[in-house]
Amino acid sequence: MIEIRVLGTFGIRLSDGNVPAVALTQPKRMALLLYLTLAEPAGPQSRDSLMALLWPDADAESARHSLRNALYGLRQTLGEAAIVSRGEGYVGLDPSALRCDALEIRRLLGEQRWEDAVALWGGDLAPGFHISEASEFEHWLDDQRAGLRRAVTDAAWRRVDELERSGDAGLVPAAQRAWALEPSNETGARRLMRFLDASGQRAAALRAYDDLTDYLRRECEAEPSAETRKLAAELKARVEPQVSPITRALPASPQPTVHQTVDSDSVASGPAKDSRRVSVTMAGIAGALLMAGVVSVFALRPAVSTAQRADTTSTEMTEIENSLRLPLRYRQDTSAYGSYLRGMTLRFNGGIEASRDTFAALVDREPLYAPGYAGLAHAYLLLEFSGWTTPAEGGPKAETAARKALALDSTVASGYTALGAIELIWRWNALRARELIDRAVALDPGDPENHIVLGVWFRWQGQADSALAEARKAHELDPLSAAHSSRVGVALIYARRYADAEAMYRQTIRDYPTQGHSYMGLAHVYRAEGRPRDALE
User: Fold this and answer.
1) Among the four residues 130, 168, 208, 385, which has the most C-beta atoms within 10 Å?
2) DSSP H or E segment with residue 5
3) In terms of DSSP bridges, do strands 2-5 and 98-100 run parallel, antiparallel, or are they unpaired?
4) What digits encode the pLDDT tens for the residues 467-480?
5) pLDDT band at 374 (very low <50, low <70, confident <90, very high)
6) What is the CA radius of gyration of the chain?
7) What is d(CA 65, CA 69) in angstroms, rounded to the nearest whole number?
8) Rounded to whole angstroms, what are the CA distances from 421 to 146, 337, 395?
9) Sign of the dihedral defined by the CA atoms of residues 181, 187, 191, 193, in that order
């Protein structure tokens, strides 16, 4: 059996698990295999049409010779039985000898199994693959890409329709996935905004509007329609009165000491004081870290006391909890939550080994605390990326910790992010990696780390513009992080927008003059521009 994966990647694997390297190094052979696999109507294809498609500028004899060589190479790689002939004029693939993810999606769409088809979608057809001097093949491939994406997008919204009719709890994630397939779709964006609003996630609905606005401006040089702007204004009008509970959660004093501890129940009564009930210890740590300018903004979100929750309406509490980094059930254990924040703080401050030790101690003490395992997984990954441990040690430990986190709580988005990174970087399984990363983004679209990993995925697929968009999104979500600023610079370099990358790095250096990776990024810009003296400096 030959497994051909073409969604989000382009790869071949034989039944024995081997990857046929010969075929992968010959673009025309890969193009021929792709066409024989997906051409419609299915079945043997005319040799003359194949020659015109892939060797349009060659004379008849040269094109015939090239086709014979390509077919010979495929037979040698895939096995004699994989290629079948019908007379002397037609050639094709034995359908019983191959399995292809795009063909499987076509089958699922034909059977109206919308959910299964969307779940199998791993990204655009053969991203980044092209053949020079074969314009007809390029046109055919572009049509296939666009047609399959449209079909899957339509299936995704059909699944949303089914869930809306049945009142299923999975409606919001399904709508998020459907809109992600076609981010310029304003009708879909409005539906998602209304679904989020109905589920009490008005702030998330406004974030979806912001994402739509940013995409239209960046990709289409357009603005949302009047209908979409009106909906956003209505949502904002209902959200703004609920901002005050979050504001009230901040400490009264801007300079609390780290060692102060105030029991929320012991705070003096009175409206003004009741509105400021909070753990001053946690606020002090957050304030100190903010002054240092070295931690992700997500580690600084305020804790909400039990007394405050009692004074707040359920709708207001939904807005507060949506703005916090961990769900309420993980913040109720203040000791475990404090350890989690310490681990995150150390991670963003560059103390990766100390972060690993903190998370390890946390899960040893609290073996059911799922976020602790997710934090431990990311710490192992960062240790390996930094060269402080080997892949043989760091990879398995990271995967074990991530799977433990998800076994305890399948909604821990960072667990999926860690597994997605493992699939992408160690196993080179782009299809599975994208599935995991998409799951993380759907569960927590406000976490910049998810967009960073998705950006890396796009970069590895040669989709520089999409990689840049994800880097910008991470930076917008967490503007206090110098690392996120530098990641935008990296994405700009890969997009060959060197002037913009230089401006980004120079701004980051002005904001964070002691962060060495910004200077290294600027050196990469100069090197790419052929300015070795400036790069050396």
Assistant:
1) 208
2) strand 2-5
3) parallel
4) 888 888 888 887 77
5) very high
6) 27
7) 6
8) 27, 25, 10
9) positive
